[in-house]
Amino acid sequence: MVGLYQQEFNDFYEQKIKPIVAPYEKKRVSLEFKKAAAVAFGFITIMFCGYLLAKDNFLGCILLVLILIPFLYVWFLEDQFHKSFKKEITSKILLLFGNLYFSDSKNAIPYGDIKAWGLFPSSEGKTDDDVIIGLYKGCNFLINECGLYHIESRRSSYSGKARLERVYDFSGLIIKIQMKKNFTSQTFVGISGKCRKPNKLFQEVLLESIAFMRNHKVYSTDQIEARYLLTTGFMDRLCKLGDNFKYAVATVGGGLDSTNQVSSALSLADYTIGDAKDDAVAVAFVGGFVYLFVPKGNDFFEVDTKRSLFDAEQYYTIYKQINSILEIIDFMKFDKNLGM
């Protein structure tokens, strides 16, 4: 893994990124102006709608619908901006790590497979954001930033009327990594209270680690192979992974000068293991791959359009985010054949 200090990264920024940022900075300024104009238009129109609704419900309702048009237009422009920016600018940061690239693949990890695994049985659909494909320390991997959700009917505290809302069962990164260990069974490690047995071919696996089993349920088609995969060391690292990754990501924007300081968050042997299930990581061992479901609270690989694109810190943040994800392969020892 490349471990660049901020000054070293700044040199890379000056040579490879800054010379091609200017056109995007102009688009960013224009986009922010359009956002502000849309908000101002919406505020004025809503006030006018209140007057119209008192006089004519039909016209007032039409105007309320028209309010959405500029917001949808700005949303479309921003979406196109980020896609183009990632393709030309952010992808250059990936080159620092070797064979990594953004993929336009939709449903890179099919929702139907995830649903069948029983890890998030209440989910009804999947939203996909970024997909990164690469090779690290001999391990082929794929990162899918996504969300799994279901629809609930909830009553509005403002109007008292019921409305449908999207509720997320999982929001974060699914990291698919090719295993060095050979296995033929299917083994799933879910979060207690959130998962269920996939089907009658699976048996519940009761492991010796009380700390691990407190927050996890394990189902497998082969009890012996499940224990071969879920060694004591693996269970200990998995218990720490959710908290440690959350800590590592939190420090990314905290002005740390070295990525080594960020990466070290994933190797803190005495880091407190939280009992909160929100940070727990679910796992699937299927077809020679391991799938890690790592929750996170913020968008990855994105620049803030409220800040200048000539701010090198924005790109260093993305660099450190990628670094912290790749550190998971080291931390979980997926590049090793034995002794996980």
Task: Describe the structure in your own words.
With 340 residues, this protein is an alpha+beta fold. Helices cover 44% and strands 21% of the residues. It has a nine-stranded antiparallel sheet. The longest helix is centred in the first third of the chain and has 38 residues. The chain has a domain of 233 residues. The radius of gyration is 23 Å and the shape is flat. It has nine helices and nine strands. A hairpin with a 6-residue loop joins strand 3 and strand 4.
Provide key terms for this protein.
alpha+beta, 340 residues, nine-stranded antiparallel beta sheet
N-to-C order of helices and strands: HHHEHEEEEEHEHHHEEH
Largest β sheet strand count, sense and barrel closure: 9 strands, antiparallel
Overall SS class: alpha+beta
Radius of gyration: 23 Å
User: What strand order characterises the main sheet?
Assistant: 1-2-3-4-9-8-5-7-6
Query: How far apart are the termini?
Result: 20 Å
